[in-house]
Structure formats: C-alpha cells, structure tokens
C-alpha cells in the first residue's frame, strides 16, 4: 500500500478481499516468558513469508531493558529472507526508538505509532498522557513520512479500558483523525483486553469507515472472552477489510491474568476462506507455521485450527 | 413452551430475548473419560438451576453399555432439585429408550429425538438409515405427544458431514419439516463437527425460520475451529432466538481428534449480555457452575470466561 493510495474500505455485499497483517513475531513473541533464540525467530518469520503474508510486524524499537525478548530486533530484520513484496513493519514507541529505527531505515517499509485511547492505560503503558503522546506523534509522523515509509497507527483500548471502563467512540475516532493528520494511511483499532462485542464492533467500524475516508481501517481483536472471531465477522459486515492477528494465538495482552490475547491468524483465515473471503494466504502453510511455533516454544498453543485443521469438504475415505 | 404455542422467531432489529438450553449434563458429561459420580452430577445440575436456566438437558435413555457415563440417568433425574419452572430434557435414541423413559414419565418435560442429516453419519452413529430413523420418529413422536410431553428434535451434521462433506440445506430443512409433522415444536440444528461459518449460519437460519413458521428454531454450534460464537451471532442476526450450549465448553463431538466441541454457555451468555440481548441468566452464577465443573472433573476446561470472567465496565480501583 503506498502512502497516497486510498484504501478501498467496502460496504456490505461487495466482493470481499481482505488484508491480514501477521503480528505474531512482535506482538506475539513479546509475551513469551522464555527467550526465543534469534535463529528460531528468523525461521518462523520466513515460514510466514512462505504462507503468503504481504505484511508482517517483525520488530519493535522499544528499549531492550523494557522488553528483552525483542532486543534482537535489528538482527532479526537483517536475518529474515522475505519475498520482495512483503512489507516489514516495526513498532516505534518514542523519538529515541524512531532514531534507532531510522538508523536502519532500509530494513523495513512500515512504521507504527501508538497510543491508548484511555488516559489511565496510556499512562500505565508508556508513562505519558494521551495529549503528550499525540504531540510526539505529530513530530514523529512527519519524520516517518519524510523517509517515504508507510505510517501506520494503532489505538489501544479502543473498545474499552480495564481501568476506566467505557471509552467513548468519538474520543477514539478523534484520535484517529489526529493520526491521519499526522500522515498515517492506516489506523488500527485494538481491543486490548477483549472488551468488544459483535454489535459494538459493527457499529464502530461503520462509523470509523465513514469518519476516515481514504484511510485503511484495521481491526485488531483479542479472544479474551472467546468473541474474537465474532467481532471480526461483525467488522467485516461493517465494511472493514483489514485485520491483524497472531499465528498460534500468540501474545496480546493477558488481562485479566491468564487470559488469551490476540485472535489466532489460522482461525481467522479459516473463517474467512469458508465464507468465500479472499485472504491471499495458504491456510495449510499458516497452520504449519503455527505448529512450528508450538514446537519451538514447547508449550500447547490455544489456536483451534492447530488441532482441528481446515474444514475438509471432500468425502473422507 | 407449550406444544401448541408458536415460537416467536424474530427478525433483525426487534427486541432481543433468547432462550438458552444448557446441554452440559448430557452432551457434555457424555464425553468425559472418567466416570462422574452421581452426587457430583446432581450438585452441578442444581447449580445450573440456580443460575436461571429454564431448560436443561439432563439425561439420555441410551443403552448403559453404549454410554456407561449416562447409565445413572434415572437416578440423576430423581436426585436433582430444580425450580418448578425448569424443563428437564431427556434424549431418546430409539423405541426401547422411549419405553424406558415413559416408565418414569413424570421425571421430565421435554423429549428429544434426533437424526443425522447425512446418511453416513447417521449409519455410523445409530446403525440405521436416515429413512428408517425418520419412520421411527413418526411413531415415537406420536407416543411422546400423546403423553403431553414437549417433543424436540435435533438434526446432526446440519452444516456439513465429516464423511460426506457438504449437506444440502434443502435436505436438512426437509427433515425438519418431517419432524414438525411428527409433532416437534422445537427443532435444533447441530454443527456436529464444527463445519459451519457465519455467512452460512446467517443464510441457513433465515431460510429455516421462513420454512418452519411457528416452530422454535434452535442453533447448536460447536467451537471446533473457534467460530462458534461468530456462528451464534450470525444466527441471532438471522432472527434465531433459541440456542444450546454447554457450561465449561464441555463435550460435543471431538472430531477431528482432540478438537473442542460445544460452545461454552458462559462465553455465549457473556457475548449476548454485552450486546444487550436478554438471556434471563445470571452470568456470574453460570461461570461459578463451570468453575465447579472444572474442579470436579479435575482438568482445565477450555471456556474463556472461566479464566477472564465477565467484562467489567466500572473503573477498577
């Protein structure tokens, strides 16, 4: 997606082709308690590339002492061997992170800035107010766009905050407009602790698409209470055509304690393919990558398709 | 629900009140590898009664040597202490089972007959052709109605068969009409091995409601590939107002091997309540019953709400 091309958000009934960004290598790995060896990360990301993803979130430029698991980000970016048409995304937490990222500017195509829609969550997450963060965004956004990188945004706690409760839709969409003004061409809405429901998802994405013409509106759901795919289906019905998910159901925010986080990419792809929605992905290869992650991490992952596989519509012998 | 009262299937946009039948004590317990002690079953069913269920599937009149886990059905029916307005449902596999059930006719209010929509699944399940089964249904249905019991039906593999693949919608709805002709006032459609998707769910339930005026149309989904709640949401959107689910995500058909089966009642209730859909249930009490089942069975259950609890919308301290 170039920065200047408007994203074709769809309305119900139109032909359905969706974009899925795989976020497991950053948002997923980040939450693993055991350190994953750099060569393992590289091998798994290359497997994702072979599954057909055109967008993968690969690394974060957070301080290594804050998230040691991701301290090998540049090594990972250097080691992976993805097809030329795959966009590598990196997460930028602040100006220092942006400095470090731009020092290796040729290793990625997409840079993501983020904020939490709720004041308390933003403060607890990055120790700054929402207003301070958005002031930084305006400055960092300009630098990212000037480098001819794609500027993406993520708004966390878009559907509710574990500390503040309800988060007004208008507040979230106002922040989205600020990101768009800063040069973002894609804006993702994160259900950080799984508080969304399908009725709200539908209403939210209808409103977001209307308020953000030409912007790629991305749904990032968690499966905290088992409703992740229901929310994704509702967003699709609302016209959303861009999704983020994590292979193996890795990572995301485990709140309340012990909860699962991100929706599993292979479950999302399975649902979309069964509905006739084109993802451009090879489901069997996605499942294979997730199983490889399970084997590498040495623990049973919670994705359903890892166990059940794709639906088989031919008669079994 | 009396036999003669038409069920108010709804169309989109109307006020939403749903019925949820808890099927864990039969469909759930049936799949447990370890024998559950009769007093434990009774204690768990009584807990479900306190959670507000008005319909509970309690027992099956299958041969004890076929499903030993359910051989204490009559003892369970005698031991439970449910409020007077709770309908106790029993599953009737054949005429012999019906004889045995009618010998204790005062212990239940609803009797369920079933068939698989696909020939191969029906043969493997009960060793009879679909036609033979439906001939039995006509005879058994009359006997059940004559006893002033509510006759319910379940059509397994309504959304796909693991042996035959696709199952035509018309074939399923023809069988539903045969059940209605036999006196059934409620007809459930089972996604036995989790092959449905939300787009098909929506189309199917729109068609079923149109084809079966006055009949209560019930959705029975499995979470085999994580899409169970998405399918339930789509059925709700199509006008379906009657659902079956299992507390703790217990039971259902583990095909492919190792898969999860029934959707978890507490996850379904959580989704409905968040959407403003009235279930008449106390979600905290449903979760409590599921946690008690987890503790009694001594293994980690797969329900999400057991871990995450309900969404909390008030600010946390």
UniProtKB/TrEMBL annotation, chains A, B:
Superkingdom of origin organism: Bacteria
SUPFAM superfamilies: Aldolase
InterPro entries: Aldolase_TIM, HMGL, PYR_CT
Domain Pyruvate carboxyltransferase, chain residue ranges per copy: 18-287
Chain segments carrying region Disordered: 1-35
Pfam families the record matches: HMGL-like (PF00682)
Keyword ATP-binding belongs to the record: no
Ribosomal protein among keywords: no
Keywords: Lyase, Metal-binding
GO function term, MF aspect, one: lyase activity
Similarity field: Belongs to the HMG-CoA lyase family.
Protein name stated in the entry: Hydroxymethylglutaryl-CoA lyase
């Amino acid at each position: 997606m170039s920065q200047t091309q408007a994203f074709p958000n769809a309305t119900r009934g139109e032909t359905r082709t969706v974009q899925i960004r795989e976020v497991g290598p950053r948002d997923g790995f980040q939450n693993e308690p055991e350190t994953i060896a750099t060569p393992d990360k590289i091998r798994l990301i290359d497997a994702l590339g072979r599954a057909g993803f055109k967008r993968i979130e690969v690394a974060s430029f957070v301080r290594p002492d804050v998230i040691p698991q991701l301290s090998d980000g540049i090594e990972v970016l250097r080691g992976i061997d993805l097809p030329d048409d795959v966009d590598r995304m990196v997460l930028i937490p602040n100006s220092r992170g942006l400095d470090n990222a731009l020092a290796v500017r040729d290793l990625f195509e997409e840079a993501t800035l983020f904020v939490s829609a709720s004041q308390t969550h933003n403060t607890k997450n990055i120790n700054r107010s929402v207003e301070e963060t958005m002031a930084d965004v305006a400055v960092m956004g300009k630098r990212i766009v000037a480098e001819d990188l794609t500027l993406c945004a993520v708004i966390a706690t878009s559907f509710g905050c574990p500390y503040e409760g309800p988060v007004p839709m208008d507040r979230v969409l106002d922040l989205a407009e600020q990101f768009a003004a800063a040069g973002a061409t894609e804006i993702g809405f994160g259900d950080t602790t799984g508080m969304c429901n399908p009725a709200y998802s539908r209403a939210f994405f209808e409103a977001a698409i209307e308020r953000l013409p030409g912007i790629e509106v991305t749904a990032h759901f968690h499966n905290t209470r088992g409703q992740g795919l229901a929310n994704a289906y509702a967003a699709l019905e609302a016209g959303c055509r861009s999704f983020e998910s994590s292979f193996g159901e890795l990572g995301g925010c485990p709140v309340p304690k012990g909860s699962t986080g991100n929706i599993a990419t292979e479950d999302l792809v399975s649902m979309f393919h069964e509905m006739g929605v084109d993802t451009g992905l090879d489901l069997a290869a996605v499942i294979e990558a997730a199983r490889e992650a399970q084997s590498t991490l040495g623990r049973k992952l919670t994705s359903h398709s890892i166990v059940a596989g794709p639906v088989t519509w031919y008669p079994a012998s």
